[in-house]
Structures
1.
Amino acid sequence: MPKGRMQNMGRHKLWRAQVKKIRRKRLRQKTAQERDALLEEECRRQEMSPTYQAWIAEQEIIEKFREEEEERLTIEKHKEWERIEIAAQQEWCLRKLRAEKAKKEREEQEVIEDSKGMGGRTRKDKAPGGGKEERTRRKTEKTGKSHISDPMIESKYNQEELMKEIIDFVEKGGERPAFASDVSETNPNMPVCPFFSKTGACRFGDRCSRNHPRPALSKVVLLPNFYSHFGMDQSMHDEYDTDLMLEYEDSETYQHFRFQFLIVCCEVEAKLCQYQIKK
């Protein structure tokens, strides 16, 4: 068979394959269109049928009933919540009235007891220093025991005594309060850190292998990371690079620290003066 004829036969086979492919595609499209048309016709027929119309009406009624039921339940829950809230408020008011009444009766009883103990006086002594707290404090000082029946007054009295002891220790150099005698230690079984004992601070902090004893009350205030300088930061990060520190001098760093320290001291003193004036 000649070569040209064989090439024509090969082209004819390819053409027939393409034609068959296009024909199958058209048949699939036609079948899909017919199926869609039948479905649309079926849907229209169902929509026009009385049975479908009745089902639609029934579904609308059910949906409306469900919405009304949800609204009714919501209203009932809201009314129940209002009822519970009103009952809780009434109960709270009753408890408040009972507490006030009990407090008033207790105060009257204390006044009667105080009046019996002070020679038959029947009312409170309203002169300065003659109130219930002052009388209780005087009794405590005389007997050395607490006769305070009200926990709030007792707590207030204890706080006042505690603050008095702290102020005496910090400002007047008095004895250390009993509660401040305890010392917390980071490593009790290790020797004391020499840096911490001299300056009250250590570069390793609580990770130090030595012991850092800290009193419960001290006259020294430590402010970590209070002062920072670029030269100090570089010396810490590049402590093995000696050439870098040639750009900074210790005297300049010291002068900068001294200047900032004086500024902070002035501001703190001004704040303390304002606080004392307001107090």
2.
Amino acid sequence: MGNLCTKSAASAALCLALFGCTDDGALESGQDPASTPGLDDDFAAAARAHDVPVDLLEAISYVETRWQMVIGESEHEGRPAGAGLFALWGDNLAVGAASTGVSEETARMDVTANITAAAARLAGFAEAHGIAGDDLLAWHPVIADFSQSDDPDVRSAYASDVLDALATGASAVAEDGTVIAMFDAHPELGTTHSAQGRGATADYANAVWRASPNYSSRNGTAVSLVVIH
């Protein structure tokens, strides 16, 4: 990561806000993401260290938080709040942090530690399934495991969200053209038509999607009511 963003959660969130990042923005012609300040170098380093496809790593973070450092608040018993670019909580946080030799608090609040912990957790799932390589569809069981749900429908929906993001590609670009993060589309994956929307909707084109680390299926119970307050 260049000097655009620091490694703390607060400054990373402020950085994304100050630079007016937008999802799925078009890159300027000739711009090289690898040499641009942002998160891509951090994702690439963690992916190399743990033999995880970098686009998969970025797509999971995109689905979880839209590449924002979040700090959730516990709302329901048995469902701790997520934190960081991957909204880490539960075993994803504990095992990921332990695997990389950092404290859970560091994995929650530090950008690089959060990415590395997530990559290590994915690598652990991959090893358990005997999965390796760049065949993104083959990583479906790993993605489902990262959802931390025992509900088959929740696991399938989560994996579909990530694979849909990979199929279409995504980017976050500052108003001055600086690339915060991006990964190319993988059209060979097709789309699974998951229910979760990814961008502006027809009823309000200026809507901005904001991830909530407090969202869940309430430990496997189907969502039947949404309260807006």
3.
Amino acid sequence: MYITTNPVNQELFKNFEAARIWSNNIVATKDAKDIVDISSTKKEIKKEKLNLPVLCATTIGTLASVLFIRKYQGMSIKNDLMKLSRSNDIKTNFKNITNFFDINPKLKEMLILSTGSILGGLAGGIITDKENTKNKVKEGVYQFTNVAVPASLVTGLLNLVEKSKISNPRTTQIAKIGAVVTGIGGGMAISTRLSNKINNSIVDNNAQSKRSIKLKDGIMQIDDASIALILGWPKLAAKLCVDKIVPLLFLTCGYEAGKQK
């Protein structure tokens, strides 16, 4: 250690030492903060990991809905399932699988699919995480209303456009697009209010929480958009094979309900 007898130098040395200690403390504090931040980030990443039990349960619920729909529509179940195991050709099997999920979806089928998906997701979520049961049920209510209300509005408005028998084809297309946009946009706003009212009065009347519309809620309206495409533009929907992938689109609503914390 450097030692000096000069009072001025001693004072400078003290100031230098104080500054050095202060600097070291700041660095140590910053490092500790960084460690905490990294730890919290890791926790957030863990929370965002795929919830496999919920996904499996949601898939089972959705498949059960597909089987139920095929049953009441009078479609063959046993024979179609047998087709999946008979052929060794990949293309043939893929075609058989897509045909199996082609359930000619309309509003009724949408409601059945969403119900099966949400019930499956809730079952998987509650079994693995009972502490957050109320939050899962509330999210399930929101997800169902967020399917039912927009889909009902879109279906009703498209039917009105069809019944109006507009002579100008371009005007008809514009009217259909307007019906879809109005149905989905207005339906989301109505479903949010409705689900909040149900959740705060029935599911958990002590919480009085409000579920607001999130960005992913808008993205998840792809199921309503697909039905709108099938109803309004059936030829285009058939070319895009939209009717054959509709059941897959409903996995999201059940999964969101089941993984809710």
4.
Amino acid sequence: MRSLERHRDVAAYALGVLNEAEAFRFEDHLMECPRCAAHVTEFGPITRQLMLYRRSTPPFVHPMAKPGPQLLNRLLEAVAARHRARRRRTLYAVAASVVIALAGPGIAMMASGDAGAVRVVEATDARSGVWAQVTTENEAYGTQVELKVKDGAGPRACHLVAIGRDGSEETVTSWSAAHHDARENTMTGASAMHTDEIVRYEVRTAGGEHLVTLKPR
């Protein structure tokens, strides 16, 4: 497969439509091509929307059928709920700042203790030496995820996988670890599962090797 053809396989790989042999060849290319690794990550929102469509569509519906109004309404409601949540957070922040300004530092100490729906978990695997930190925030559509990772054993393509309580798995984000670069890398992604539906996160190589497990408290 020529290099240009490998670049063109980014979308097919991200959407999971390559066969096993093609996916294996593309993952070899992904380990040496930071541009393709970045493009795979960029396809994350699209794959999540397709997953939502698949979950909301009965199995007997033809794959080329147009999305019905129910899916559109759900997506619009999710967007509206997210906007309302942002407005509430802004209003709460303004109100809190007013209270703090009036009541002094004693109230400020009390107000700073609540982290809301944001959760942070980190772990280092003794065998692989990989360190990772996952910060999650529950959203209307699922979970927003920020991943920080240190991996000095590159180059290799890696994934962050969310494992649900029902055993289901979902790739949150993908990246390519640079050659023997142990500096901290930060990626963002999202899961269609909500935070309370996720029992753990795993960092794995594209070949399936387990690197580190993170279990939310």
